[in-house]
Write a structure and sequence with these properties.
With 519 residues, this protein is α/β, with parallel strands linked by helices. It has three domains: 101 residues, no CATH class; 139 residues, no CATH class; 190 residues, no CATH class. Strand 2 and strand 3 form a beta hairpin. It is flat.
């Protein structure tokens, strides 16, 4: 057996190589891999002082026999009863893509609150914070991540969600897996959780929190993630915990476009007929309370700015509208913006599906800024190509060799010259989530998908890559003036692409592909 001969570390090295390039393997091979015992799994052992690294044992398993440990507390509980994937992000992602389940998806919780505290102020404060901030967290996720009906849970409706405090909270959990070994893995185990959700028979979702000691922020975030998602990642819990613990104004300073996020959430809820989840109307000034009465609640004040923005944009159906007679003027406006040096403080419109627009194309997944959160990317210092910056998903390795990065950067740099675009407005990103995402326009700066380039142009002639990315750049440039994917954007996109065809044809790689003589 290779594992026995090579040893654990060398086998892990081979697994990492497979993880990086497995998407290029034939579909039949990938299917066979899922059923083969090639996945290294660790089973924790116990020493007299608890779990010890030296006691770990490892075996090769198939995809059904191993789990990805996305829940550290559950791993401590059940680590000696089930095989766990190596705790490296690259390998965990590879295991998940090959059909390996997450540990959290196999845990069943039983909640037993005792001594409910009626009208507890800490419960009401927490519920208000969740209602206010949960849309900021939810906007980053695709629909398929959520349990049915949870994407647009009516958080304001107490018939669907409320928070309750109690003096004592007993939460037990059990591992549901056919590959559990020993009676311990099949038993219910008590936890020390200070918060957990419970779904009642009538569909009401309750978040229970312990009075003393005060409910831990991480427990609250993890409980809400279990309520929302089919499976969740460690980073999901940490992200939600940070958002719930941070003031709205601070979130805005950290880069969250709060007004726009709430606008999109509100519009989506309205489209779903979610009347109960609508935000309260704006109030210019709260009326004075009559003598002897309580003053009116000030809770809606935080949202009044958003509500005004919603109504203003909702009444502006001509945003991004371009008439054929104005096309040349629109092209000049685009060029004026794009020839200036780019910076992180640039503010304009982007290619999100905002309210309004003409005959819009829905679900334009190849050009969707929402798939890559602004806070999800970090700059790869020292790996830029000229003035074209390179970005990657936070906490991950770039995973792309320098030759491919340099080749793609040269294509983008050359095309920027074709369109007379300042190269500081062009960026390359590697996110590792969706190779179909070609790019997006964020604040008049264009991000191009390195993963899409590698998957679609790896074996294609260089000239073809230039042509494809030429039209993608024109598409994203058009978003400078037209935020929607509608007929106005199509008109401007076609005009931009047509205007520079001669310069595109003069590129050596393009001329070589068409077997043209040197100019």
């Amino acid at each position: 057996m290779f594992l026995e001969l090579a040893g654990e570390e060398r086998y892990l090295a081979e697994l990492r190589l497979i993880a990086v390039g497995h998407k290029s393997l034939p579909a039949k091979t990938q299917k066979e891999m899922r059923h083969a015992q090639i996945f290294l799994g660790y089973r924790r052992g116990k020493s007299t002082h608890g779990y010890s690294h030296e006691a770990d044992v490892f075996e090769l398993r198939n995809a059904e026999e191993v789990l990805v440990a996305d829940d550290m507390e559950s791993r401590r509980t059940f680590g000696d009863c089930i095989d766990i994937a190596p705790q490296e992000e690259l390998l965990e992602k590879f295991y998940s893509e090959m059909g390996v389940k997450s540990l959290s998806s196999c845990i069943e919780y039983t909640v037993d609150p005792d001594g409910e505290l009626l009208n507890a102020p800490e419960a009401e404060t927490l519920r208000s914070s969740i209602i206010e901030k949960i849309p900021i967290f939810l906007h980053e996720f695709d629909e398929q991540r959520f349990k049915i009906g949870m994407r647009l849970l009516r958080w304001r409706d107490e018939k669907q969600f409320f928070v309750r405090a109690c003096r004592k909270l007993d939460v037990t959990k059990r591992l549901k897996s056919s590959h559990v070994t020993g009676t311990r893995g099949r038993e219910e185990h008590p936890t020390e959780l200070s918060a957990e959700t419970q779904q009642l028979e009538d569909g009401v979702n309750v978040l229970w929190i312990k009075e003393q000691p005060k409910a831990d922020s991480y427990d609250i975030a993890a409980a809400l993630c279990r309520l929302l998602f089919l499976t969740y990642k460690k980073n999901d819990v940490l992200s939600l915990m940070t958002i719930l613990d941070t003031d709205i104004k601070v979130l805005e300073r950290r880069g969250y476009d709060v007004d726009r996020i709430l606008l999109e959430y509100h519009k989506k809820a309205e489209q779903e007929g979610d009347v109960a989840n609508k935000m309260p109307p704006p109030q210019s000034q709260s009326p004075a309370a009559p003598p002897g009465e309580e003053p009116p609640s000030s809770k809606p004040v935080i949202l009044s700015k958003f509500t005004k923005l919603f109504h203003r944009l909702h009444k502006d159906p001509k945003l991004g509208e371009i008439k054929p007679s104005e096309i040349e003027n629109s092209i000049e406006k685009v060029k004026d913006v794009m020839k200036e040096e780019g910076g992180k403080d640039d503010k304009h419109i982007s290619n999100r599906e905002q309210v309004g627009g003409g005959k819009k194309q829905k679900n334009v997944g190849y050009c969707d800024e929402k798939k890559v959160s602004e806070t999800d990317l970090e700059e790869c210092e020292g790996q830029h190509v000229g003035q074209v910056k390179v970005w990657k998903r936070k906490g991950t390795a770039l995973g792309v060799n320098s030759r491919e990065r340099e080749a793609f950067g040269k294509i983008i740099s050359d095309l920027a010259k074709v369109f007379e675009v300042n190269q500081t407005r062009c960026h390359i990103f590697f996110h590792g989530e969706d190779p179909n995402l070609m790019g997006f326009n964020r604040n008049d700066q264009i991000f191009f998908g390195l993963e899409h380039h590698i998957e679609k142009h790896k074996d294609a002639p260089v000239g073809k890559a230039y042509i494809d990315w030429y039209y993608i750049m024109a598409h994203e440039m058009a978003h400078v003036q037209t935020p929607y994917h509608d007929e106005h954007h199509e008109l401007l996109f076609q005009a931009l692409a047509t205007k520079h065809l001669t310069e595109l044809h003069n590129l050596p790689a393009v001329r070589e592909m068409f077997k043209c003589a040197s100019p």
